[in-house]
């Protein structure tokens, strides 16, 4: 009986490992969100392998345990590839940026979110699904005199970018064909340094191949931008998803690892990071933190600080 149970458990675990390992063969859109959980699934597979070995100690159980450990190890390595590392943490930041998907139906917390944004001391705020803030815009605009988005009523209020400093240029465009106007490109002068700010809200990766098309359009946009770049927003995928990895690698984007988990809220710090803030040299992150309260959203917000490093010298705040 133990022999039968052993091989039944081995069969189920083999299939599960094979499905997760398909990332090394193909980036099939239906499984792409599953790939974001490679570390979590690896831990689950290790636990399952130990259960199998408790039932019966045979070589195949040890093979499954070894492969499960490899999945975890490679997940950690993949995250490390895009790690910013410590840089300029002893210097004052050039600017602070907040990015938060507040959830499009989060009306009851709109006042609290508005108060939090104003009190954040962020220089730039990137708010996604901002429709619930439609009745607080004038209050926000007093604290942040410059804005992009939410100009024609609440029904078109999706991405809202707020700034304490004037935009040198600004553009709102679409990516892919599923949703409109979810890519905002702007630039702001911080103490004589022009920083390019890109706000993005990608579709869920299991919505056919729409996210892949959006990433292609986003890559073209970033490829046309010279100088320091900050990319922030809701990617609906972790940094280890194959499509996101390829995109980050090609664009030379970095973040601070481990990234704070932002979803699902119930999992807290044991969740995954699907909301991100990335920087491209000569701009570097020195701090990346999750907001203390999700304020009714199904995402956690992020706040980051940056320094500019030209020719090995980090520019301080001015």
What does this structure look like?
The chain has 318 residues and is an alpha+beta fold. The chain has 2 domains: 2-81, no CATH class; 95-315, Deoxyribonuclease I, Chain A (4-Layer Sandwich), CATH 3.60.10.10. It has helices at 2-21, 32-35, 38-55, 59-81, 110-119, 137-143, 210-223, 242-251; strands at residues 95-101, 124-128, 146-148, 160-163, 167-175, 179-190, 193-201, 229-234, 253-254, 275-280, 283-290, 302-310, 313-315. Helix 1 packs parallel to helix 4 and helix 7 (210-223) packs parallel to helix 8.
Please indicate the percent range of residues in DSSP E strands (runs of 2 or more). 25-35%
Q: What is the mean pLDDT? A: 92
Order of helices and strands: HHHHEHEHEEEEEHEHEEEEE
Helix content: 25-40%
* Annotated CATH topology of the largest domain: Deoxyribonuclease I, Chain A
If helices are DSSP runs of H or I spanning 4 or more residues, what is the number of helices? 8
Question: CATH H level of the largest domain: which superfamily?
Answer: Endonuclease/exonuclease/phosphatase
Overall shape: elongated
Q: In the residues, how many domains can be counted?
A: 2
CATH-level-2 architecture of the largest domain: 4-Layer Sandwich
Structural class: alpha+beta
Point out poorly predicted stretches. 312-318
């Amino acid at each position: 009986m133990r022999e039968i149970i052993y091989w039944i458990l081995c069969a189920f675990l083999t299939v599960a490992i094979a499905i997760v390992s398909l990332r090394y063969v193909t980036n099939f859109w239906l499984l792409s969100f599953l790939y974001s959980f490679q570390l979590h699934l690896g831990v689950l597979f290790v636990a399952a392998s130990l259960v199998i070995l408790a039932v019966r100690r045979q070589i195949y159980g040890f093979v499954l345990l070894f492969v499960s450990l490899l999945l975890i190890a490679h997940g950690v390595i993949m995250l490390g590839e895009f790690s910013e590392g410590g840089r300029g943490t002893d210097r004052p930041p050039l600017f602070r940026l907040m990015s938060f998907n507040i959830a499009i139906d989060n009306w009851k917390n709109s006042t609290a979110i508005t108060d939090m944004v104003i009190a954040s001391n962020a220089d730039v705020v990137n708010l996604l699904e901002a429709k619930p803030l439609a009745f607080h815009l004038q209050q926000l605009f007093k604290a942040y005199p410059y804005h992009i988005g939410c100009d024609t009523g609440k029904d078109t209020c999706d991405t809202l970018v707020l700034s304490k400093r004037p935009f040198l240029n600004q553009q709102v465009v679409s990516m892919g064909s599923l949703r409109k106007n979810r890519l905002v490109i702007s630039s702001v002068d911080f103490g004589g340094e022009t920083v390019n700010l890109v706000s993005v809200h990608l579709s869920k990766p299991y919505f056919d191949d729409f996210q892949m098309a959006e990433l292609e359009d986003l890559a073209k946009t970033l490829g046309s931008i010279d100088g320091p770049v900050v990319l922030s927003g809701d990617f609906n995928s972790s940094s280890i998803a194959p499509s996101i990895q390829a995109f980050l690698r090609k664009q030379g984007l970095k973040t601070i690892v481990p990234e704070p988990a932002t979803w699902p809220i119930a999992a807290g710090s044991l969740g995954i990071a699907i909301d991100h803030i990335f920087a491209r040299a000569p701009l570097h992150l020195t701090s990346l933190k999750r907001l203390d309260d999700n304020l009714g959203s199904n995402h956690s917000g992020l706040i980051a600080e940056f320094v500019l490093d030209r020719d090995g010298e980090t520019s301080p705040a001015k």
